[in-house]
Design goal:
Elements: H1 2-10, E1 23-27, H2 31-43, E2 47-51, H3 54-63, E3 69-73, H4 81-91, E4 96-101, H5 106-115, E5 119-122, H6 127-184, H7 190-205, E6 210-215, E7 221-228, E8 237-239, H8 246-253, E9 257-258, H9 268-273, E10 277-283, E11 286-292
Parallel strand pairs: 1-2, 1-3, 3-4, 4-5
Antiparallel strand pairs: 6-7, 6-11, 7-8, 9-10, 10-11
Helix pairs in contact: 3-4, 4-5, 6-7
Pfam families: GAF (PF01590), Response_reg (PF00072)
Organism: Dissulfurirhabdus thermomarina
GO molecular function: kinase activity
Length: about 290
């Protein structure tokens, strides 16, 4: 204990990145060992919490906030120290783990490192060895907390970027809707309405080609009433029963279709009809026409 008092008087307290004392959880099934470790660690200015086994240690971690590091014995009943370290790292990767063992071996060392342990102490150990291990734990804890904070900032930045993108899309949608409303409000003839619909479809999607069909009264054919850009002659009047054109399928089933451009190996339907997006136009819940861009 004299050594502990001397170190307490000559050495500054070991602190975390926040400037407060390092909060340590000591886990050992030997009460005498826990008491001795606790006394030494408190002499270094650390805040000490004790647990008699791994299960109690996990309860302490869940109920007591701000634990910076753990010092755990390997050989314990119920849950050994390696499994305890693994469970701790599952709860919080930024908690530093130091393993204590009386029977060091390569196998135990490798297993503990894989579980997440950062340092080892072999019984019996000197006070200066304990202080050095705790100082290393405090440094690692500060680094891990900084990384955790940076990751949180990155995630927040990504979330803000997502919100900004959604806001930009909403503003663009509002601008398009305003343009559509303003444009269609000036239309006086049906033919002019059809032309403006195709023009607005191109403007809204960035396309240079659009086609608009209306369904005839019998519901058997699509008649092209407006187009922007080139188109195949057989698309002027489309028989819903026999045509393989995508617009015929959209009119029959009432579902929009999006075709992907795969470059040199484009799908047959795309290379044949050169459509990208085909949507049904409804009037009173019934398909009244088809628009493609």
């Amino acid at each position: 204990m004299k050594d502990a008092r001397d170190n307490r008087e000559t050495q500054p307290p070991i602190a975390t990145g926040a400037g407060g004392p390092l909060r340590l959880l000591v886990v050992d099934d030997d009460e005498a060992v826990r008491a001795s470790l606790g006394s030494c660690l408190r002499s270094m200015g650390c805040e000490v919490i004790e647990a008699a086994d791994g299960h109690q240690g996990l309860e302490r971690l869940r109920s007591i906030p701000g634990i910076d590091a753990i010092l755990s014995d390997v050989m314990m009943p119920g849950m050994n120290g390696v499994e305890f370290v693994r469970r701790v790292k599952e709860l919080d990767r930024s908690i530093v783990a130091v393993v204590i063992t009386a029977y060091p071996s390569v196998g135990v060392t490798v297993e503990a490192m894989r579980a997440g342990a950062s340092d080892f102490l072999t019984k019996p150990f000197r006070l200066d060895q304990l202080r050095l291990a705790v100082q290393r734990a405090a440094l690692e804890r500060r680094v891990l907390l900084e990384q955790k904070s940076l990751r949180a900032e990155v995630e927040m930045h990504k979330a803000l970027e997502h919100v900004n993108r959604q806001l930009e899309l909403t503003l663009k949608e509002q601008a398009v809707l305003f343009t559509i409303s303003e444009t269609l409000g000036k239309v006086q003839h049906l033919e002019e309405l059809y032309r403006e619909v195709t023009n607005l479809a191109c403007a809204a999607t960035g396309s240079d080609r659009a086609r608009l069909w209306t369904l005839d009264e019998a519901g058997t054919h699509l008649d092209m009433v407006a187009a922007r850009g080139d188109f195949r002659p057989e698309l002027v009047r489309v028989d819903l029963a026999s045509s393989m054109a995508p617009c015929a399928s959209v009119a029959r089933f009432g579902h929009p279709v999006a075709l992907q451009d795969t470059g040199p190996g484009r799908s047959p339907s795309l290379s044949e009809w050169d459509d990208r997006l085909i949507v049904p136009l409804r009037c009173r819940q019934k398909v009244a026409g088809v628009l493609s861009v």
